[in-house]
Structures are given as structure tokens and as C-alpha cells.
Design a protein that fits this description.
Helix content is about 35%, strand content about 20%. The protein is built from nine helices and twelve strands. By secondary structure, it is an alpha+beta fold. Strands 6, 7, 8, 9, 10, 11 and 12 form a seven-stranded mixed beta sheet that branches. The two termini are about 20 Å apart. The chain has two domains: about 140 residues, no CATH class; about 120 residues, no CATH class. A hairpin with a 2-residue loop joins strand 8 and strand 9. The structure holds zinc ion.
């Protein structure tokens, strides 16, 4: 059995402070984040306070429920990937944090080497969710291993995200994915180069593709058209091995594919 560290409120807040996540959320995006009291953040300081106030301590029942699930997920991952366990542990322990959840639409995610879980899923059998998040931890430790797959198996190319200029209004709807902080992977489809991204519009998340065109300024790319729904592009879905879950970034695509392959066995 691997020991699990259940972070307390202060330790969780330290993870938020150490991580790039809250700094990466753009100023336009801040007001899409709503806390448990239905308040919108207006400034980054508000946002940070909301996050700090959303951290929670685990109950004893939750710890007893989660510990075997973590070990089951680790064992499944280890069978698929011998040696991965020790890569995921910090001081020989796996780290979990608990949050209220509404600031991130109750999605689980990782912060540094900690898996963050919204309180509303802690009573469920979340083995495959934990496995998916463990893959994000692994991506942080062995990025080159995954980048090879993105290039060679999917055909993604890495470009400097600061050289992508989105000029449509849809820039305002972009959402920062804590497990894929940089939008730096683009893919060539038959009719052009595309940037996968996540947007939040009309109260829902959409995995989309922004078409990029080379700018007259060398090395820069412009997205000047409204994005398209990524799942409507059959050629994209085929290139990414028919992944039909989260397709907004290769970190998500591979996490979904590995999780479903392991769960099928
Ligand atoms: Zn994910």
C-alpha cells in the first residue's frame, strides 16, 4: 500500500501559491470563475482569495474511502507502466487535496504534484478519474516521453504560444486548463493548421479548434475566424485515435486514451 497524504487547508493553499495556475488564468477569464456563494471574481486578488477559501480538509470517512481507490488506480497504472509509481510520489507518498469545486466547475485536476478533487465526487468510485489525474502527474515528470507521442503518434507540432494571436471575440471565452497550462500544440488538418483549445460559452465547455494562418510578421500565427467544434471534425478525431472525450489538448487526449485502455483490460 502506498501512503496517501491528504493535504489540509493550509497545505492546499500553498500548492495554489506555488503553482502557475492562478497566474495563468487571463484577466478576461477571471470573471468566468464563480465561487460557492455565486460571486464572480473581478481581480486576480479576488480570485486567489476565492481559491484559498475553497480549500477544505478531508473527513476521516473520505480518507478511508479514498485510500484503497488511490492504491487500486496506482496498481493499474503500474501494471501498464512498470516503474511509474515512484515517479508520481512525493517523499514516497501520493498527494491529494480537497476543494469546494465551483471555481472549476467541479472538475478534478492537478496542481504541481497534487491531485485536487472537488468535494462532490469524494463518495464515488473514482478509480478512473484518479488514473486520469495520475497521467497528468506523470506528464509533469516525464514531458519528453509524452511529447514524442504527440509528435509521432498524433502529428502535433509545438509552437511558441506567445506567437499565436487570436483576434476574434472568442479569445474572451478561452478557459485555462490546469493540466495543460500552455496552448502550444497545433495540428495540420487537410485544410490548414489548427490550435485545439477549451472555451466556455453559454454555460458550457466546448473543445474547439482555432484555424491559424501565418501572419505577415514572421513566426506569428493569427486566428481570425470563429473556432469550430473539435468533435465535429472527423479528420481531427481520426488523427487522435478516435478519442471522443477531452480533445482540447494532447495532455487530455492521451490521458483519456490511456485511461480507457487500462480500464478495458
Ligand atoms: Zn485531464
Amino acid at each position: 500500500m502506498v501512503e496517501v497524504v491528504f493535504l489540509n487547508i493550509n497545505q492546499t493553499n500553498q500548492e495554489y501559491q506555488k503553482s502557475q495556475y492562478l497566474q495563468t488564468i487571463s484577466l478576461k477569464e477571471i470573471s468566468t470563475r464563480i465561487n460557492e456563494h455565486n460571486q464572480k471574481a473581478n481581480t486576480r486578488i479576488d480570485l486567489m482569495h476565492y481559491y484559498f477559501n475553497s480549500s477544505l480538509d478531508f473527513t476521516m470517512d473520505e480518507k478511508l474511502h479514498l485510500e484503497p481507490i488511490i492504491n487500486k488506480a496506482l496498481k493499474l497504472f503500474e501494471n501498464h507502466f512498470p516503474g511509474v509509481t515512484k515517479i508520481l510520489l512525493v517523499e514516497n507518498k501520493l498527494r491529494l487535496a480537497k476543494v469546494q469545486g465551483s471555481l472549476d466547475w467541479n472538475f478534478p485536476y492537478t496542481l504541481n504534484m497534487t491531485i485536487v478533487l472537488p468535494q462532490n465526487m469524494l463518495k464515488d468510485d473514482i478509480t478512473s478519474t484518479i488514473l486520469h489525474e495520475m497521467i497528468h502527474l506523470h506528464q509533469k515528470k516525464q514531458p519528453h516521453f509524452y511529447e514524442e507521442i504527440y509528435r509521432n503518434s498524433f502529428g502535433f507540432e509545438k509552437i511558441n504560444p506567445e506567437k499565436i494571436i487570436i483576434t476574434t471575440n472568442y479569445e474572451n471565452y478561452l478557459i485555462t486548463n490546469p493540466d495543460a497550462l500552455k496552448r502550444e500544440w497545433v495540428i495540420q488538418l487537410y485544410d490548414g493548421l489548427y490550435l485545439p483549445a477549451l472555451i466556455y460559452i453559454n454555460n458550457s465547455h466546448i473543445n474547439c479548434l482555432f484555424r491559424l494562418r501565418e501572419s505577415s510578421n514572421p513566426g506569428y500565427y493569427l486566428a481570425q475566424e470563429p473556432p469550430i467544434n473539435a468533435k465535429s471534425r472527423k479528420d481531427y478525431i481520426e488523427i487522435i485515435h478516435n478519442c471522443k472525450q477531452q480533445v482540447d489538448h494532447p495532455n487530455e487526449i492521451i490521458a483519456c486514451i490511456i485511461t480507457s485502455n487500462i480500464s478495458k483490460k
